[in-house]
Each structure stands twice: as C-alpha cells, then as structure tokens.
Design a protein that fits this description.
Layout: E1 6-9, E2 20-28, E3 35-40, E4 49-51, E5 60-68, E6 72-80, E7 83-93, H1 94-97
Parallel strand pairs: 1-7
Antiparallel strand pairs: 2-5, 3-6, 4-5, 6-7
Length: 106
C-alpha cells in the first residue's frame, strides 16, 4: 500500500485521457485466478479497470495494472475464489498539488 493509502501519480502514470494507471502487486495464498474490481466512493465515475497478466501461475505473486478513471477515493477488491481483500485508497495527481516551478528569470 502507498503511505497513508494515498496514491500520488505523476509523469507517465497519468494517461492521455486523464486517468491514472499504476502497477499494483498482489500475493495469492489460495489457488486461482485474480480478479480486481473497484469503484469510486466520493463521486460518480466509471469503474476502475485491471490488467492482470498471465504467466505467474495460480498461487503466489501476481502483478496487475490498475487504471483509475478519475482522481478520488476508491474502494478496490481483489478476489481469488472465495478469498477477498478490500482496501480504500485516495488517488491524486501530483501536478494538481505541486505544479512545476516557473523557470527563473535570467
């Protein structure tokens, strides 16, 4: 998890459409295929999308790529079979809070 459950995205993690993409690691202690769902809690937004690559077996480490369509407070659930893990994270774009400094005058 990110410090204080706040994901602060910048650079290439902000997609051309304004969505926020981030790699997210998972650990599967039960056998099966991981699915990830998520929805924004503080406003209407499309659900997040998850890219879960194959090739990591059916247990243990599983990377994913999560795309959050908007900034905001998101509830994310990873599931394998009957096992579930749910967390809440705040997604922010760094440039909104720390704009690039203006160039110095010569």
């Amino acid at each position: 998890m990110w410090p204080n459950n706040v994901l602060i995205a910048s650079g290439s993690y902000i997609q051309p459409d304004g969505s926020v993409w981030m790699k997210w690691p998972w650990w599967r202690s039960v056998k099966g295929r991981l699915t990830v769902t998520g929805r924004r809690l503080d406003a209407d937004a499309p659900p997040l999308t998850a890219d879960i690559p194959s090739g990591y077996g059916d247990r243990g480490f599983q990377p994913s790529g999560l795309t959050f369509p908007t900034e905001g407070c998101w509830r994310v659930t990873g599931a394998v079979g009957d096992a579930r893990l749910t967390f809440v994270t705040l997604v922010l774009k760094a440039e909104r809070y720390w704009p690039k400094a203006e160039p110095s005058a010569p």
